[in-house]
Amino acid sequence: MPHFNRNRLALAVVATLTAGLASPAFAQETPPAPQPDAPAATQAAPAKEAVELDQLVVTGTRVQGRSPTQSLSPIDVFRPANLERQASADFTDQLSVVAPSFNTQRFPIADGTAFIRPANLRNLPPDQTLVLINGKRRHRSALVNLQAEPFGTVNQGSQAVDYGLIPSAAISRVEVLRDGSSAQYGSDAIAGVVNIILNDNAEGVRVDTQYGSTFKGDGDKWRTSFNLGLPLTEDGFFNLTAEYFESDFTSRGIPQANAALVGAAIGREQVPFDGLGQRWGDPNGKGLRTFFNAEIPLNESVSLYGFGSYADTKYNSSFFYRTPVGVPGVAPRGTLMVDANADGLPDNVDQALVDSIIAQGLDPNDYLTADATSPSGFVALNPIYTQFPGGYTPTIAADLMDYEGVFGARGKFGNGLNWDLSLRQGENRVYYKLIDSINPSLGALSPTTFEPGFLTQLERGANADFSFPWENSVFASPINVAFGAEWREETYKIAEGDFPSWQIGPTAALFGFGSDGFQGDAPDAAGEFSQYSRAAYIDLEADVVERFTMGVAGRFEDSSSFGNTFDWKLSGRFQATDTFAVRATVNTGFRAPTPGQINTLDVTTTADSNGNLIPQGTFPVNSPAAIALGAVPLQAEESQAYSAGFVYTPSDNFSLTVDYYNIKVDDRIALRNIAIAPGSAEQQALIDAGIPLSALPGQVSYFTNGFDSTVQGIDLVAIYKADFGNWGTGTFDLRHSWNKQEVDHVDTNPFDGNPVLDGERVADLENQLPNNRSVLTFDWRSPWSFDVTARANRYDGWEDVTFGETASFDAKWLFDLAVTFKLFDDRAHVTVGGNNIFDEYPDKQPNSVLNFLGAQYPLSSPYGFNGGEWYVKVGFEF
């Protein structure tokens, strides 16, 4: 439904601003109006490195020539040197180290989330931040984050962009707009916008190779990048980046309690992962990541441009440990043994089941073994248990295939009207493979390697953007008028897994079915699901009077699945003195549920409060299972936000900005988890809906609009450029973020009357990320052919609640250091550095269940738990 009430103010302001434009005329001699979606080559030339405080931005404004301190909204700008002088080869980590409002965590044993890292801006979900490449919307990953306890729930249910597919060697700069901008850019821009500007060098070759490891001696990382710039005619360019990387496992866990018992009884070499049972740490990975960026002028007023990417990366990580049969004091995994005492039948197994196997022309000995030596004498065994004397741990592997292409034309008419027409298409595929697992219903005939299927996210879009400076006699400057339209479509595809990964074998009622750990997608889960949207926007910005700048933007968007919405944004900046200015914004925003969130069907394994492994099934909201348990169609999330702050620039060498923000988000999408106990009303409702008893997981989940929340905070950025005379120059960069989230309201489930979010999920949302985070970077450029970068990161304390236990973790300081030596007239460089050089770890995890499962450090740690890392990097420029 349209949201007319909340938009009356914006409509009135638009009418007031445009009504005063008497006898407007296009400016014939005015410099070109802004091209916010253009690569850097089409913008005004950036300032020299010596005056970084005045670098220009194109995000959040459609006025050419704005610097971060002149913008109406808070914007951070990060250069390649900020990103590349780090141990990590992952852009997700690189950005989180330098931007305190941007956080990421590491989730081992969490399906695809172990490989595709979610990241939060301002403590909001990953998919509430819009990601742009050269000003154009980037397609999201095919992964929908479904992780539940014990993996943390801050990111649960999100489907966002995979930052890890973007090589830092392809980046000219990163602009982080810390302000809601749905009125300017559309869905997802609730927390803000991350705009990645690609390299546009028209000449030169740069090759970099980096190798490093952790202080523990594992987690080796190696990457090599290649960047090539070529001219296209006199004023055009073609820039290509290719990066290959490899990263090895890390392991910071302790032996899983049962794995330790099994290892002591039969030898730890029989237990997966050298007696640990499972691995808590980073996955291993390798792959290729490439980007290109190009533009060619056809004449003085028209250019063709294009950019795109291709990536092929592979990862693998472990799941939970499954206990074997026959070790005293260790209960076997239910996929290998089931107590049949209730049957009381001859041969210790249900004779009707044996008869049905024989009737199919099959040998019962391939599917069942009776064990009369057990204490009860009534135990049915899966014959495949003999292949796993020390138990088994499924390994999940993922092959990520990704491409994107954006092509367009832009130019300027003689009357001053700038135009930009573009088409884009991007696709992300996640191919899964499961190793060292079984389909327990197939007995001894089960394969141990499966292909559970693959997921695809396909997005297409078309944009028409126009702008011009509108000369008038009312305001102190021309009104920068930008307007345009957008069409976009996204399609989510679920491909059927191989037959054994979802096959319901003869003994499914006893042991379960499908590939254990990550069940394959059956034909009824496979499909192709699409939705599209159409939008039109207008964006006005002008100096209303001298020293006072105002902006107003409005966007109407119509979705094929969720009706229409109108969102708006008002911005203002008052230059009180030559050195002091105040700025403020107020805006509304929205995020439409994705086809992936609406249609995903997934069965994986999680742990309960006793450390037992249970299957968790996530079902589409329109499925019989979800509807039986109270699911209703999803609606768009909506936000109302405002910010206010000041800018202090007493000199060309110093700037200070402080901004307060408050973001209220209604109808937030949550993953509703419902336990399915034998004989419960929930189980009966599913049976009544036609779900076979043998197909019921231990927990059913579905997406719902479940709660409202408010996030507020203060961001501080202080930058000082020092001149040390004969000792060179230095830049001091201090950034601090205070952030607090509160859950305002939680809906109740219509099926059972319980809250959609339990108390643990609410506590995690409010406390699992640090409230305060600071980053202090000192970059010294010496006159003696070497540079030094030193950085201090402070993470405030945090809490998480898992399985009914609350754990608190203390604040920590992490220090990074890098020294770069420049050789051969600066055409070669060698960097020796380290992240977390004092080898700091988070506090030990006190949770008894997680300790039983082998986790000794908190999975919610905002800086991971690998300890210190060192690296050496060598680069050449030609």
Automatic annotation (TrEMBL):
<dbReference type="InterPro" id="IPR012910">
    <property type="entry name" value="Plug_dom"/>
</dbReference>
<dbReference type="InterPro" id="IPR000531">
    <property type="entry name" value="Beta-barrel_TonB"/>
</dbReference>
<dbReference type="InterPro" id="IPR036942">
    <property type="entry name" value="Beta-barrel_TonB_sf"/>
</dbReference>
<dbReference type="Pfam" id="PF00593">
    <property type="entry name" value="TonB_dep_Rec_b-barrel"/>
</dbReference>
<keyword id="KW-0472">Membrane</keyword>
<dbReference type="InterPro" id="IPR037066">
    <property type="entry name" value="Plug_dom_sf"/>
</dbReference>
<feature type="domain" description="TonB-dependent receptor plug">
    <location>
        <begin position="71"/>
        <end position="193"/>
    </location>
</feature>
<comment type="similarity">
    <text>Belongs to the TonB-dependent receptor family.</text>
</comment>
<keyword id="KW-0732">Signal</keyword>
<feature type="domain" description="TonB-dependent receptor-like beta-barrel">
    <location>
        <begin position="364"/>
        <end position="837"/>
    </location>
</feature>
<dbReference type="Pfam" id="PF07715">
    <property type="entry name" value="Plug"/>
</dbReference>
<feature type="signal peptide">
    <location>
        <begin position="1"/>
        <end position="27"/>
    </location>
</feature>
<keyword id="KW-0675">Receptor</keyword>
<keyword id="KW-0998">Cell outer membrane</keyword>
<feature type="region of interest" description="Disordered">
    <location>
        <begin position="26"/>
        <end position="46"/>
    </location>
</feature>
<protein>
    <submittedName>
        <fullName>TonB-dependent receptor plug domain-containing protein</fullName>
    </submittedName>
</protein>
<keyword id="KW-0798">TonB box</keyword>
